[in-house]
Amino acid sequence: MLLTIGELSHRAGLSPATLRYYEEIDLISSTRSAGRHRRYPRWTLRRLAVVAAGQRVGLSLAQIRQSLAELPTDRAPTRAEWSALSASWRSHVNARIAELTALRDDLDGCVGCGCLSLDRCPLYNPGDEAATEGPGARLIRRAQVDP
């Protein structure tokens, strides 16, 4: 059974624009009707569930695309295929947990010191060194835990 983009959008809870984008970046694929309208196999819902699961654990769409490249493109993944794919995500999830734990543990210390100033903080930014690195959240990025 083939689904129109509207049907897939409704079933997946995603906008048609999102589905077209996902197709553009090779997360999903469609065939075309005689009138050149997109038609999606029903199992595309499973691929979209994999995309949602990947996003939920913090993977980028590029990382999810790499994972999906290991799955068949003509059917829904089997339980064994999903299990193998999700196992490959575990190290990423563990790294994110460690990163968030470190961030949580640092929150009290930073605000608790009383200076409340990143340009004067002797622990995180002595001498306002971060100003020379340009705009953006440099200190937060630097504090990330390596996987």
Task: Please give a quick description of this structure.
With 147 residues, the protein is mostly helical. It is 52% helix and 6% strand.
Radius of gyration computed on alpha carbons:
22 Å
Number of helices: 6
- Name the poorly predicted regions: none
Task: Tell me the major beta sheet.
Answer: 3 strands, antiparallel
Physical arrangement of strands within the biggest beta sheet? 1-3-2
E-strand count = 3
**Shape from CA axes?**
elongated
Helical amount: 40-55%
What is the distance, rounded to the nearest whole angstrom, between the alpha carbons of the first and last residues? 43 Å
Mean pLDDT over the residues: 82
Helix-strand category: mainly alpha
In quaternary terms, these chains amount to single chain
Sketch the topology as an H/E string, one letter per element: EHHEEHHHH
Beta-strand percentage? 5-15%
Overview of the molecule:
With 147 residues, the protein is mainly alpha-helical. The chain has helices spanning 5-12, 16-24, 44-56, 61-68, 79-112, 138-142; strands spanning 2-4, 31-32, 38-41. It has a three-stranded antiparallel β-sheet with strand order 1-3-2. Strand 2 (31-32) and strand 3 form a beta hairpin. It is elongated, with a radius of gyration of 22 Å. 11% of the residues are buried.
